[in-house]
Amino acid sequence: MDPEGFAGPSKKIVTPLTPEALAAFKAAQDRAGVIYISRIPPGMRPAKVRHLMSAYGEIGRVYLQQEDAKRAYLRRKYTSTKKAHFTEGWVEFKDKKIARSVAEMLNAQPIGGKKGTRWRDDVWTMKYLPRFKWNMLTEQVAHEAAIHSAKLRVELSQSKSEQQEYLKNVELARVLDKRAARKKEKGEEMVMRPNDRRKRPMEEGEGYQRKKHKPQEGDEAVPLNSVLDSVF
């Protein structure tokens, strides 16, 4: 998860859990509830979201999703705002009942605050996520990061192959130009002639088959006896 968008408890040394502590942790996870905020007001950071939500109940973890890199680049280029902006977020309450009531109470309501504050007139857009646990969010973020890395590898591979093809064409053009210059120095012109391939003439009688002579109806058959009489 992006550390810029994470506002969780401070880092602690991880120690193995005892069976009792593990059972208590699972029970706490079952009691917890998560609300989804579909729009984060411009300039609001995770610490501010935690501060505002903690007024309604005990907060566990808060995660805000940063805007995509292309949008952030254009914003920094054409505006004076250089800080990171966030587009959506998730807030974990220790009690799912409180999370449900907070989402129902604050959805489509102005953020409020003192007069003149930055987000006084902005509106909350949030929803309670039933049967949604924090580990589902971490798995989703990891899956999206893996997809992004795979797409990036494919784009880099494609760009590398295109670059190699371009360099190959440049080298070929350089060789041809050098050859043409050498021909020009010798007073010859480099003419590209098509391959002059003539078909071999068909040999006489090739493909010709002699037909056997068949006797016609008008031909007279010579008697065998007359031939023998003339011989003997």
Please specify the SSE layout and strand pairing.
Blueprint (H helix, E strand, L loop, with lengths): L18 H13 L1 E5 L8 H8 L5 E8 L2 H10 L7 E8 L2 H11 L19 E4 L4 H52 L38 H8 L1
Antiparallel strand pairs: 1-3, 1-4, 2-3
Short structural summary:
By secondary structure, this protein is of the alpha+beta class. It contains six helices and four strands; from the N terminus they run αβαβαβαβαα.
What distinguishing features does this structure have?
44% helix, 232 residues, Alpha-Beta Plaits, four-stranded antiparallel β-sheet, 6 helices, 2 domains, alpha+beta
Could you explain how this protein is built, in words?
There is one protein chain. By secondary structure, this protein is α+β, with helices and mostly antiparallel strands. The chain has 2 domains: 3-132, RRM (RNA recognition motif) domain (Alpha-Beta Plaits); 147-184. Helices cover 44% and strands 11% of the residues. It contains 6 helices and 4 strands; from the N terminus they run αβαβαβαβαα. It has helices at residues 19-31, 46-53, 69-78, 96-106, 134-185, 224-231; strands spanning 33-37, 59-66, 86-93, 126-129. The protein has a 4-stranded antiparallel sheet with strand order 2-3-1-4. It is elongated, with a radius of gyration of 44 Å. The protein starts with 18 loop residues before the first helix and ends with a helix. Residues 181-232 are annotated as: Disordered. Belongs to the ESF2/ABP1 family. GO terms for molecular function: RNA binding. It comes from Crucibulum laeve.
